[in-house]
Specification:
With about 350 residues, this protein is α+β, with helices and mostly antiparallel strands. It has two domains: about 250 residues, Sandwich (Jelly Rolls); about 50 residues. The protein binds fe (ii) ion. This is Fe2OG dioxygenase domain-containing protein.
């Protein structure tokens, strides 16, 4: 008997259907202003300036106790990087190679820079993979985290106030109090939003959260070099528009649990239209299969131990384990589509 066939996918080639590229260029003043004299290598001792957040809101406080992968919901903005580090990141973001290859748009965002990768953005990728940064992000998240995948290191949102170019598909400033984004949940369990602009003279820019009772809670938006860590997959939220500053550039890095046994409910729906699908699917498949591999190896070790100890086969336990892995694979089939 032949093995059960996987659902058929018509192979037209992923490269044939590239994500839409914005027609509007990044303003020249941003590109000119981002140049640095010397490219530096990320060094936590020099480039990190961590200060603990003044407040960490728990899931319980917003009525979502027991949901998500951590008891912590969202932090107040906290200092994470030095100004020098932010300058190095901006130099990579506004480099020719990145602007030519990593700028995307969708119905949701008018201009975003994504998937720079460690060849184009070594400083930025080293920063988010550094154990010192990950230790602090994990500490405030209340669970050990790693970047969801390299492709999700640094999705950069750019908003410019003084002209009609690359801005979110957002309300105009006169449509006061309206959000830059609609209510949504993120694609990956946790995000860290880092502000790459100095926010002098800026108002707004908060993150609005919807509590379980429907109340709206506002968390202050980050200032330059500060970050907000949030369990965005499990909370409805939106970024409120900022006013007054010349530019607002933020970097969203997505995280997942380091432990393979923690559930991973990441989805690709929101990022598919603004990604190089071949790269996105390659990295998604790799980490998901690695998680599965770790789970299977761990299960085998436990099975072997049980057998040596002459304990009986745990039928219910094994069926539960298999059902969970089946769901895990099934959700991959849902995400890996044309
Ligand atoms: Fe979000």
């Amino acid at each position: 008997m032949s093995p059960r066939a996987a659902p058929k996918v018509h192979h037209t080639g992923l490269t044939a259907q590239r994500a839409t590229r914005p027609t509007e260029p990044i303003p020249q003043f941003l590109i000119d202003g981002a140049k640095v004299e010397t490219k530096q290598t990320f060094d936590a001792a020099r480039h990190m300036s961590y200060q603990p957040p003044s407040k960490i809101y728990t899931m319980k406080e917003i009525g979502l106790e027991g949901q998500g992968i951590s008891a912590n919901a969202v932090t107040a903005p906290f200092q994470l990087f030095t100004e020098e580090a932010i300058k190095q990141m901006r130099a990579e973001i506004f480099s020719k190679d990145v602007l030519e290859n990593c700028q995307y748009m969708s119905a949701f965002v008018k201009s975003t820079i994504r998937g720079m990768g460690s060849a184009r953005a070594p400083f930025t990728c080293d920063a988010w993979n550094s154990s010192a940064v990950l230790a602090k992000v994990s500490e405030v998240a209340g669970i050990e985290l790693i970047p969801a995948m390299d492709y999700e290191i640094g999705a950069i949102n750019i908003s410019v106030n003084d002209q009609s170019v690359p801005i979110f598909n957002a309300p105009k400033p006169d449509e006061d109090k309206l959000p830059a984004f609609a209510w949504h949940r993120d694609s990956y369990p946790f995000v860290c939003v880092t502000m790459l602009s100095d926010c002098v003279g800026m108002t707004g820019g908060e993150t609005a959260l919807k509590t379980a009772s429907g109340e709206i809670m506002k968390v202050r938006g980050p200032a330059m070099g500060t970050a907000v860590v949030m369990q965005g997959r499990y909370m409805e939220h939106q970024a409120l528009k900022a006013y007054g500053g010349r530019e607002q550039i933020s970097m969203v890095t997505s995280f997942r649990a380091k432990c393979p046994h923690v559930r991973d409910e990441s989805v690709l729906t929101g990022v598919r239209p603004i990604s190089n699908l071949s790269e996105l699917y390659t990295q998604y498949t790799r980490y998901r299969l690695e998680v599965l591999e770790d789970r299977v190896r761990d299960r085998l070790r436990k099975e072997q131990y049980r057998d040596i100890a002459k304990r009986e086969f745990d039928l219910e336990g094994m069926r539960t384990f298999l059902a969970e892995q089946k769901d895990f694979i099934e959700s991959m089939l849902e995400e890996l589509v044309e």
